[in-house]
Amino acid sequence: MKKKSIAILGIGGVGGFIGAKILANRFDDSIKLDFISRGATYENIKSKGFLFTSPEEEVVLYPDDLLLSGKVEEPYDLVILATKSQSMESAIIENQSIFDENTLVLPLQNMVNAAQFASALVKKPEVVDACIYLISNVQNPGQIRHLGGPGKVIVGKPLSDKFDWAFEYLNQCGIPISLVSDAPTHLWRKFLFISSLGALSAAYDVTLGEIRNNPELKTLWEYLMEEIIQLAQNRDVPIDHSDLMAALEMLSNFPANAKTSFQLDIEKGWTGEKKTLVDEVISDSLKNGLTCPYYQEMEFKIDKRLQHMAGAWE
Ligand SMILES: NC(=O)C1=CN([C@@H]2O[C@H](COP(=O)(O)OP(=O)(O)OC[C@H]3O[C@@H](n4cnc5c(N)ncnc54)[C@H](OP(=O)(O)O)[C@@H]3O)[C@@H](O)[C@H]2O)C=CC1
Ligand SMILES: CC(C)(CO)C(=O)C(=O)O
């Protein structure tokens, strides 16, 4: 029987964490795991191996095959999409050959509609809603540091049980998988936290500790979350004030000096995931007759920061 195969497309914070868990914990070679990367990430892994650091370990690992994005010719049984949201489209388009009608696609972006977006591009495979709870960053291309979070993956149930092997395998490799029938609610709950906190931290250039300890910033954060809740409810997704309270509580688990990854991108003058974290919240709200003055204010401030940085570098 043909070996099952898994490809991770995008070896950054998320893709690297999942790849490391599989490579470090797999118990046999019954399933093939390939990395699809590009540029410096590809070159560094090729020449030095893949370095994964966590509070428990520092290991150099090797995927079964390291492949250059755009040059892959075989379809996979499971494809984990782990690029940032703004790179998804081009990554999928240049790697169409990795998908066929037997592939399951797991998109892990901080988006509420990643599965719909990917589905329209890949056409044949089944794409399920998914999200991951994790803090893991690129130190250098091909070198990933896991800073916290269990790496728990929440996945919307596929149409059949033919992919159960994949979920069992990931679980056995130390990636906790939770299959749920109400995936949109989970995705929106996560988006409520990430989008609002990302927007606020990027607009004001503040750490998570500064947001926690500054009553004005904390109130602004709550207003932003309320704008997400009204958008979710407008789409019949049942998140409410109790989720806002849970998000406030969740912030207390983060180190005071932690910054969101969106803020780190803005600091470098990059737009990062602004389109999916901020701009689309505004456009979707307005399209549905909702007002979102706090998101609009964050967007304005973020744009000003970006313009200021672009000016400073000219
Ligand atoms: N990091 C985290 O802890 C968490 C992140 N998320 C979400 O997960 C998603 C991924 O985030 P994260 O892992 O941090 O992002 P990173 O930027 O760390 O990693 C993305 C990787 O994808 C690569 N990539 C982009 N386009 C291609 C392509 N065409 N072919 C091959 N590789 C490509 C990038 O390479 P290159 O450098 O060359 O662009 C980069 O290595 C985001 O939506 C994020 O919001 C969710 C939960 C936690
Ligand atoms: C959880 C959090 C906020 C950690 O930095 C994150 O995932 C992000 O920045 O996108």
Main attributes of the structure:
alpha/beta, binds NADPH dihydro-nicotinamide-adenine-dinucleotide phosphate, 11 strands, N-(1-d-carboxylethyl)-l-norvaline Dehydrogenase, domain 2, Rossmann fold, single chain, 5-stranded mixed sheet, 314 residues, 6-stranded parallel sheet, binds ketopantoate
Write up what this structure looks like:
The protein has 314 residues and is α/β, with parallel strands linked by helices. The protein folds into two domains: 4-181, NAD(P)-binding Rossmann-like Domain (Rossmann fold, 3-Layer(aba) Sandwich); 185-313, N-(1-d-carboxylethyl)-l-norvaline Dehydrogenase, domain 2, CATH 1.10.1040. 47% of the residues lie in helices and 20% in strands. The protein has helices at 13-25, 39-48, 88-94, 114-122, 164-172, 183-204, 208-213, 215-234, 241-251, 261-267, 274-287, 293-312; strands at 4-9, 31-37, 50-53, 58-61, 65-68, 78-81, 104-107, 126-127, 130-140, 143-156, 177-180. The protein has a six-stranded parallel beta sheet with strand order 5-2-1-6-7-8. Strands 3, 4, 9, 10 and 11 form a five-stranded mixed beta sheet that branches. Helix 3 packs parallel to helix 4 (114-122), helix 6 (183-204) packs antiparallel against helix 8 (215-234) and helix 6 (183-204) crosses helix 12. The chain is globular, with a radius of gyration of 19 Å. The N and C termini lie far apart (59 Å). The mean pLDDT is 96. Ketopantoate binds at residues 110, 135, 194, 197, 258, 260-261. Residues 187-296 form the Ketopantoate reductase C-terminal domain. One of its GO terms (molecular function) is 2-dehydropantoate 2-reductase activity. InterPro entries: 6-PGluconate_DH-like_C_sf, 6PGD_dom2, KPA_reductase, KPR-Related, KPR_N. One of its GO terms (cellular component) is cytoplasm.
